[in-house]
Amino acid sequence: MKKTLLLLLAGGLLTAQQTSELLGTNWYISKMVTSSGQTTNTPLIDNGVPATTISSAGGTSYVINSKYYNTATMLFSIMPGSNNLIKTAQSFTQLFYNGGNAGAVRNYDQKNVDIYVNGGYASLYNYQITTNGNVKTLVITDPSGNKIFYNNTANLSTKEVEAVKKTFKAYPNPVKEILYIENVERNLPIKIYDLSGKLVLETKTSDRKMSVDTNNLQKGQYILTIENYQSFNFTKE
Predict the structure, then answer these.
(1) Mean pLDDT, residues 178-207
(2) Average pLDDT of 214-221?
(3) What is the mean pLDDT of the chain?
(4) Which segments constitute the Secretion system C-terminal sorting domain (predicted)?
(5) For position 156, what pLDDT does the model report?
């Protein structure tokens, strides 16, 4: 009887400590790993990755708001004395991202939503928290074996990262036919995306001064990227 009581108390203390760590930390998505082992690091996003929060929903219920561009929300309870989460409900927002790095951001955003929305009532999720110095990592595994990783440190935004990148000169803007580029290194990938994130042109830098023929582009707005340089937005007339 005493042994059973001690085990129950130990399980209760363990759960309290785990819950305290979950609820007392701002978490930021750092990567996802599929059940097949494919890893995707969190793409840079305008304004930075917001904090994912886990909070009490009353009684023995808790809620995670997993935030990237959209927010995937899952209501759950914690299986006593374990690292298992029992799903009881879910929801998600349906905002449309049209900023920098759009294609990668949208794909990653959908994966974040899928991890919490897929799976029925009472599905079992698992979580683990590890600490390395001042860095805490939270790993949540869904019923299919997909893993989502969070750190207690925020990711840089696209704009913050670009602030430390080199710049180049591009003109004219708007452009009718030929876009001229100056002050770039040789043999670097050049990519042009439309605002949906679709890659519409790809080439390489040939010299410090070069030109790009835009005659095959439809009228509209585009984003030109050169590896290791800030991106450049331009309009095709």
Answers:
(1) 88
(2) 92
(3) 85
(4) 171-230
(5) 66
pTM of the model: 0.64
Question: Which residues make up the CATH 2.60.40.10 domain(s) of the chain?
Answer: 169-236
6 pLDDT tier (thresholds 50, 70, 90):
very low
Q: What one-character DSSP code corresponds to residue 208?
A: S
Half-sphere exposure of 233 (CA within 13 A, CB side): 7
CA 164 to chain centre: 21
Burial (CB count within 10 angstroms: exposed 0-12, middle 13-18, buried 19+), residue 121 = exposed
Q: Which fold has domain 12-151?
A: Lipocalin (2.40.128)
CATH 2.40.128.270 in the chain, residue ranges: 12-151
Residue keyed to tokens 């707005």: 221
Max alpha carbon distance in the chain (Å)?
A: 85
Residues 40-55: tens digit of each pLDDT: 999 888 888 999 999 9
230 contacts: CB under 8 Å, gap ≥ 6: 162, 165, 166, 167, 168
Give the pLDDT score at 229. 81
* Fold adopted by 169-236: Immunoglobulin-like (2.60.40)
Give the count of beta carbons closer than 10 Å to the beta carbon of residue 39.
10
Which one, of 179, 177, 161, lies nearest residue 169 by Cα?
179
Identify the residue with better confidence: 180 or 230: 180
Expressed in angstroms, the distance from the first to the final Cα of the chain is 82
Give the separation between CA 229 and CA 169, rounded to whole angstroms: 11
Higher-confidence residue of 59 and 176: namely 176
Q: Judge whether 200 and 214 are in contact, CB under 8 Å.
A: no
